[in-house]
Amino acid sequence: MLHPPHQSVQVAAVPSQRAPARDQAGPWHTEAVCRRDEAGLFFAPSKEPTAARLAREEAAKRVCARCPVMVECREHALLQPEPYGVWGGLTAAERRVVLARRRRREMELGQAAQAGRIAAAG
């Protein structure tokens, strides 16, 4: 498993959704705001009470909200997929929802394309 930038470990760069200048300057995670914050903010300690978890996740999301590479971080976590922690402003549960929606959308688009091919052939 790859580690988040807030653990100060090098991770594989994800192709940037933004301007190509970032790719020339270095991997996206070098600009991550979370590199300067406490890693514990982004990952749950064992047996964390629900209220504490929600407060911690909201604090992590506030850090993500001001990050210039939030989109790249989120895409990294969705492509891996990262099973734990707050990445790109999303919790693990929120990322599972996004991934399920993407899969459903891809399936719907595939079915629509197939229906269109059948109608054109018929």
From TrEMBL:
InterPro entries hit by this protein: 4FE4S_WBL, Whib
Keyword tags: 4Fe-4S, Cytoplasm, Disulfide bond, DNA-binding, Iron, Iron-sulfur, Metal-binding, Transcription, Transcription regulation
Subcellular location(s) per record: Cytoplasm
Keyword Disulfide bond found: yes
Record Pfam families: Whib
GO biological process, one term: negative regulation of DNA-templated transcription
Entry keyword annotation includes Iron: yes
Coiled-coil features, chain-numbered ranges: none
GO terms, molecular function: 4 iron, 4 sulfur cluster binding; dinitrosyl-iron complex binding; DNA binding; metal ion binding; protein-disulfide reductase [NAD(P)H] activity
Major location (coarse): cytoplasm
Cofactor(s) the protein requires to work: [4Fe-4S] cluster
GO cellular component: cytoplasm
Cofactor, free-text remark: Binds 1 [4Fe-4S] cluster per subunit. Following nitrosylation of the [4Fe-4S] cluster binds 1 [4Fe-8(NO)] cluster per subunit.
Role according to the record: Acts as a transcriptional regulator. Probably redox-responsive. The apo- but not holo-form probably binds DNA.
Family statement: Belongs to the WhiB family.
Protein name listed in UniProt: Transcriptional regulator WhiB
Organism, scientific name: Streptomyces agglomeratus
